[in-house]
Amino acid sequence: MLASPVVGPFLLVALVAFSPARLPSSGAPAAQPSFQRGLTALHNFQYEDAGEAFREAQGIDRDFAMAYWGEAMACNQTLWLNQDADMARQVLLRLGPTPPARAAKAKTEREKGYLRAVEVLFGSGDRAARDRAYAEEMRGLAKAYPEDPRAVRRSSEKGATTRTSTRSWEARPRRRRRPSWSGCSPGAPIIREPSTT
Question: How far apart are CA 180 and CA 183, in angstroms?
Fold first, then answer.
């Protein structure tokens, strides 16, 4: 047996988490490795690395709409419920001055759908409303492209995170500290028995 029942699930999660992410895109072939590297970093919550890779792809292909989409998505750090909407809007402005101008640079309907979704995510209004609207856009994208695992996953994933992202960190109920079963308190000296060997 290769892995125990306990270790097996962890290996599967590690394999999925650290395997390269793929999203077909219409950018220049020379920009694809940078784009795919950014996408993998984004999926692994390495937001700074993702932004850097997406900017590298933009340097190779200035009109690569999905590279700007990726850099903007790196401003939505779901792991920490952190979102820098102003920075994402600046990224999108580098692609074009208006949503229609930016959409015109997307070469496929699926890419236009991803751009529409990111425009909603970083549009006007409060964050909770934008998150709900984004989830709706992603559900529409998942229906239109059921073979696109990213769209399907993000459509269900974002709906779950919108409920928690509307609450501030300070407003969350604090967990009660669990009593120590060993009787030790933090900072208490550890008393070791003398070795008999």
Answer: 5
Tens of pLDDT, residues 125-163: 999 999 999 999 999 999 998 887 666 555 555 443 444
pLDDT of residue 171: 40
Identity of the residue numbered 46: Q
In this predicted structure, the answer to whether residue 5 has a pLDDT above a threshold of 70 is no
- Residue 28's region, left for phi above 0, alpha for psi from -120 to 50, else beta, is beta
Neighbours of 49 (CB within 10 A): 16
Report in angstroms the alpha-carbon separations of 60 from 37, 55, 57, 137. 14, 9, 5, 29
**Coil, strand or helix at 44:** coil
pTM for this prediction: 0.69
Tell me if the domain spanning 28-165 has CATH number 1.25.40.10. yes
- Contacts of residue 43, Cβ cutoff 8 Å, sequence gap at least 6: 17, 21
Beta bridge partners of 76: 83
CA distance 152 to 144: 10
pLDDT at 163: 41
* Kind plus residue range of the DSSP H or E element containing 77: strand 76-77
